[in-house]
Each structure stands twice: as C-alpha cells, then as structure tokens.
C-alpha cells in the first residue's frame, strides 16, 4: 500500500520541485525561486516550508512558524469535521423478543445515539424459542 500524503504539514527539506512559488509568513508573495534559495530563506528566518497547492505550476509553498502550522492544522480539522459526510451509514441491530428489560434499555440508548448522528438504523427482532 502506498503511503498517503498528509493534506497539510511541514515539508522540511524534502522538496521534489526545483522551482517554487514562495509566500512569506505574512501572506505576501516572494515570487518564483529555486529550491536552494527557498531553503536558504527558511534557515535564515528559522521558519518551515509548507506545501499549499501542489497542482499549480510552479507549486506554491509558504514559509510558516510552528505555531502557524499548528493553527492551520486545527482550522482544517474543524472544517473537515463540520463538512457533511458523503454516503449514508446504516447501523443494524438484532435481538430476541425475550430480551431482558435492562438490555432493551441499553440498546434503545444506542439506537438514540445513532439517530442523533443521522445514521439509518435497521432493527431485527427474532422470536424467542
């Protein structure tokens, strides 16, 4: 299985591109520059290079502090959490008609939690012997 790339994170010195478009930590464009120049700039200001947009030509990198990287990761995590999930999750629960009262209450609580999370719930009741 190929390793999945992280959506956002510190790149460090492993930059596969020769020419990059660099943005400083205030968000101002520094223009296109060679990888060596960008690494030199990163070392001078004690910052990290982070890949923002890989699909552009040349790819866009931003110089960021560790704190900025952390805040951006949190912001993206919140955004991902808030976005609606694709597909419908179906939960299935089956139990006997001779179920004990406390077991039935526990399962009812579980079903209520699933419904709150907008899951589809399928309940099957088997006849007791």
TrEMBL record:
Single GO molecular function: ribosome binding
Name the InterPro entries on file. Answer: T_IF-3_C_sf, T_IF-3_N_sf, Translation_initiation_fac_3, Translation_initiation_fac_3_N
Q: So which residues are the signal peptide here?
A: none
Alphabetically sorted, this entry's keywords are: Initiation factor, Protein biosynthesis
| Ranges for domain Translation initiation factor 3 N-terminal | 11-78
Keyword Protein biosynthesis part of the UniProt annotation: yes
Q: Which family does it belong to?
A: Belongs to the IF-3 family.
Q: What is this protein called?
A: IF3M factor
What organism is listed for this UniProt entry?
Rostratula benghalensis
């Amino acid at each position: 299985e190929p390793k999945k790339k992280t959506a956002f994170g510190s790149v460090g010195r492993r930059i596969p591109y020769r020419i990059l478009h660099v943005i400083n930590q205030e968000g101002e464009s520094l223009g296109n520059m060679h990888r060596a120049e960008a690494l030199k700039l990163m070392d001078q200001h004690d910052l990290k290079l982070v890949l923002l947009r890989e699909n552009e030509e040349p790819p866009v990198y931003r110089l960021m502090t560790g704190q900025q990287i952390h805040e951006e990761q949190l912001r993206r995590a919140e955004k991902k959490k808030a976005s609606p999930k694709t597909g419908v999750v179906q939960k299935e629960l089956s139990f006997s008609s001779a179920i004990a009262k406390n077991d039935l209450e526990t399962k009812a609580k579980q079903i209520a939690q699933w419904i709150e999370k907008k899951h589809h719930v399928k309940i099957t009741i088997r006849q007791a012997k």
